[in-house]
Design goal:
Shape: globular
CATH class: Alpha Beta
CATH architecture: 3-Layer(aba) Sandwich
CATH topology: Rossmann fold
Order of helices and strands: HHHEHEHEEHEHHEE
Radius of gyration: 17 Å
Number of strands: 7
Number of domains: 1
Distance between the termini: 34 Å
Strand order of the largest sheet: 3-2-1-4-5-7-6
Structural class: alpha/beta
Length: about 230
């Protein structure tokens, strides 16, 4: 990292340095596969399943941001999608590849920082994020929006699952200014419906709702998360 800001990327990287180094943290997190972490279960988000069941989205080319151990990427592939699944953690990708092989699905898993990711403009039908946005500091939000906008085809869909403020699994209810004063995301930022509508104001909101708490073993659904589907 440069210690003198000469361009926009220098500024972004200097602000990044105020927060924990993400790769090492997530490698450690995913190295203990037996931990009682709800989203370690190899089942897709209930909202994602509902998008297909209700014909809100159709099979196509998918970019998943922060795929973790691959549970949603595997679901997309089983629906007939061509999937590029991105994550910073090699530990999570190794696990995801094992699961994909067991499920006999073909997925392009790739280790990459999403802010260094090169994508062809208008190349994806769906961009999906389950749990990535709330771990991104506010200064990277514009880059995140630009990535989604660039990747999606006109009329393409952006699906999102994130912490609610004060949710059971996390969701710091602090302002962007407080993030920098405290130099911490407090485990992940919480987002309200109004915040998502404001941040993604250039997209059409198709559905924004709380994740449903479900008990059936074939989907993931817990309280404290907000789900959203937008269209470019």
């Amino acid at each position: 990292m440069r210690e003198v800001i000469a361009n926009y990327e220098d500024l972004m990287e200097m602000l990044d340095s105020l927060f924990r180094e993400p790769t090492g943290f997530w490698d450690d997190f995913y190295s203990e596969r037996e931990k009682r972490v709800p989203f370690f279960a190899n089942v897709p988000d209930e909202n994602l399943v509902s998008y297909f069941d209700c014909n809100l989205v159709r099979p196509g080319r998918v970019l998943e941001l922060g795929c973790g151990p691959g549970r949603n990427a595997i679901y997309f592939a089983k629906q007939g999608c061509k999937v590029d699944a991105i994550d910073l953690s090699q530990e999570s990708l190794d696990w995801a590849k094992e699961r994909g092989s067991e499920e006999n699905v073909e997925i392009n898993f790739k280790k990459e920082n999403i802010f260094k990711l090169e994508v062809e403009p208008d190349s994806y039908d769906i961009v999906y994020d389950s749990g990535c946005l709330h771990h991104i500091p506010p200064h990277r939000r514009i880059s995140y929006i630009n990535l989604v906008e660039k990747a999606l085809k006109p009329g393409g869909y952006f699906g999102l699952t994130c912490f609610l403020p004060g949710g059971e699994l996390g969701g710091a209810n602090i302002t962007d200014l407080e993030v920098y004063k405290q130099q911490s995301l407090k485990g992940g930022l919480g987002y309200s419906e109004d915040m998502l509508r404001s941040i993604f104001k250039d997209f059409k909101a198709i559905e924004i709702r709380n994740m449903k708490e479900v008990t059936q073993p074939n989907v993931f659904g817990v309280a404290g998360l907000l789900t959203a589907l937008f269209q470019k």
